[in-house]
């Protein structure tokens, strides 16, 4: 714990701080009133203001990542595939019977083929050259909310692994080349067998496809997928009628999938990661401690009235594996945990800082580490009031547990990495206090 004394303020300086312009009636020179005030900065190490530290992953779903992703050996290690399930085909199509002029509804049509049309993200994930993609039929039941690289279904009492990791296996639909210079869509031809399966309107029909990349080293985004089926009407077999079935479910599965570590604070990602801190703010800085060096009178009481500013200071660190470095700016947030006993599934309160702190992608490169400070003066003042028994009558107690997280969850598949406790550059709490015995009149 360290403390630094800041310049003393005379009464004129204090009046300037609070914006007071009234003249003092007794003295022409306000500085003639003796005020013994000093402003000090206290840096509380992690171990002196945090009683408990926990980290968890699993907030939200891979299905919430937008756009979905395709990758093969991206940054030498990441592989990602997008899974889609299509809506059913219409119960009937409109066709004109041979020899007649008016269209009728035909429910006895026959699927004869079609096209899988995939629209790619050309803004954030635009490759420099044409890439080769592949598509396959998924023949296994899967759950879009819980599917992962290893599991088709990962719910309590109903878990089921993939026949092959990464939704592997199934019947291949072939490959297609996508050149971003020619547009944002790539088309796979669908054979009559697959078209018939995907036109099945029964509740047990899977109607699903897996998309992947055949080109290594690139990261691609999938915006949407449509199955455009061709049908032959029974009332006019010489005619082909097309009907669209949009994707109703989609998710991304990827490997590796980094977990969490108690030596590191990770926030964001999909599913998202959070760090939980239970605070134990000292209300007295004891005499003889390092915090009291340069302070005129110890022990020093840390009270809401003396608190000028409080901020949680963290330091970014390189993201590992490198494939998970943030692609966009993340917003670092801290929220109160309303029911600490229910961590990690506790409901959260409002943010303790007005605005999230932006974390830019360059902050997580090999040489990009920088200091991040999250202001939380109002929260720390309210917490001190609770600790000292000075809370307002009827006010709800303030939770001393905070969740560090991304303002938006999930924030994509990538995450932010911050130095954890016990490491060089670990978090600390920065307090600025003004100490004064008040105005002493002659």
Would you kindly provide a brief summary of this structure?
The chain has 442 residues and is mostly beta strands. The protein has four helices and 28 strands.
Question: Any overview of this molecule?
Answer:
It is elongated, with a radius of gyration of 31 Å. The protein has four helices and 28 strands. Strands 4, 5, 8, 9, 12, 13, 14, 15 and 16 form a nine-stranded antiparallel β-sheet that branches. With 442 residues, the protein is mainly beta. The model is unreliable at 7-28 (pLDDT under 50).
The span between the termini is 38 Å
Helix content: under 10%
What is the beta-strand fraction?
Answer: 35-45%
Class from secondary-structure proportions: mainly beta
Based on CA inertia axes, which overall geometry fits? Answer: elongated
Question: What's the quaternary structure here?
Answer: single chain
Kindly provide the radius of gyration, computed on alpha-carbon positions and rounded to a whole number of angstroms: 31 Å
Mean pLDDT: 87
Low-confidence stretches: 7-28
Write the layout of secondary structure elements.
Elements: E1 2-6, H1 11-18, E2 35-45, H2 46-49, E3 50-59, E4 68-74, E5 78-86, E6 93-95, E7 104-106, E8 110-120, E9 131-138, E10 151-153, E11 160-161, E12 172-178, E13 185-190, H3 192-198, E14 208-213, E15 219-232, E16 241-255, E17 264-268, E18 272-279, E19 284-285, E20 300-301, E21 307-315, E22 330-337, E23 348-351, E24 357-359, E25 371-375, H4 377-387, E26 401-406, E27 415-419, E28 428-439
Antiparallel strand pairs: 1-2, 2-28, 3-18, 4-5, 4-15, 5-14, 5-16, 6-7, 8-13, 8-15, 9-12, 9-14, 10-11, 15-16, 17-27, 18-26, 19-20, 21-25, 21-28, 22-23, 22-24, 22-26
């Amino acid at each position: 714990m360290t403390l630094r004394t800041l310049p003393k303020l005379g009464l004129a300086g204090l009046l300037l701080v609070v914006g007071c312009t009234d003249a003092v009636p007794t003295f022409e020179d306000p500085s003639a009133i003796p005020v013994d005030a000093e402003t000090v900065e206290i840096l509380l190490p992690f171990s002196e203001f945090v009683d408990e530290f926990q980290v968890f992953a699993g907030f939200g779903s891979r299905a919430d990542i937008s756009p979905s992703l395709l990758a093969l050996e991206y940054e030498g290690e990441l592989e990602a595939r997008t899974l889609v399930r299509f809506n059913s085909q219409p119960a009937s199509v409109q066709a004109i019977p041979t020899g007649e002029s008016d269209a009728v509804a035909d429910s006895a049509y026959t699927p004869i083929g079609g096209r899988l049309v995939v629209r790619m993200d050309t803004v954030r994930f635009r490759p420099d050259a044409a890439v080769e993609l592949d598509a396959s039929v998924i023949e296994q039941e899967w759950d879009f909310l819980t599917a992962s690289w290893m599991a088709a279904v990962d719910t309590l009492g109903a878990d089921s692994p993939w026949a092959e990791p990464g939704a592997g296996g199934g019947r291949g639909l072939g490959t297609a080349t996508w050149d971003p210079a020619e547009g944002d869509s790539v088309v796979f031809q669908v054979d009559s067998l697959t078209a018939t399966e995907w036109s099945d309107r029964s509740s047990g029909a899977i109607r699903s496809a897996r998309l992947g990349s055949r080109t290594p080293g690139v990261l691609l985004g999938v915006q949407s997928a449509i199955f455009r089926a061709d049908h032959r009407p029974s009332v006019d077999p010489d005619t082909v009628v097309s009907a669209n079935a949009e994707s109703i479910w989609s998710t991304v599965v990827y490997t590796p999938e980094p977990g969490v570590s108690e030596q590191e604070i990770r926030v964001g990602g999909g599913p998202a990661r959070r760090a939980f801190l239970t605070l134990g703010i000292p209300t007295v800085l004891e005499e003889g401690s390092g915090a009291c060096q340069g302070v005129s009178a110890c022990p020093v009481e840390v009270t809401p009235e003396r608190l000028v500013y409080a901020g949680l200071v963290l330091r970014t660190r390189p993201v590992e594996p490198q494939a998970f470095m943030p692609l966009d700016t993340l917003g670092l947030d801290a929220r109160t945990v309303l029911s600490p006993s229910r961590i990690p599934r506790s409901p959260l309160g409002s943010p303790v800082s007005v605005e999230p702190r932006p974390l830019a992608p360059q902050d997580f490169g090999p040489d990009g580490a920088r200091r991040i400070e999250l202001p939380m003066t109002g929260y720390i003042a309210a917490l001190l009031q609770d600790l000292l028994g000075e809370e307002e009558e009827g006010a709800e107690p303030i939770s001393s547990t905070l969740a560090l997280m991304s303002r938006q969850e999930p924030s994509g598949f990538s995450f932010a990495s911050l130095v954890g406790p016990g490491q060089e550059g670990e978090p600390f709490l920065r307090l600025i206090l003004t100490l004064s015995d008040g105005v002493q009149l002659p």
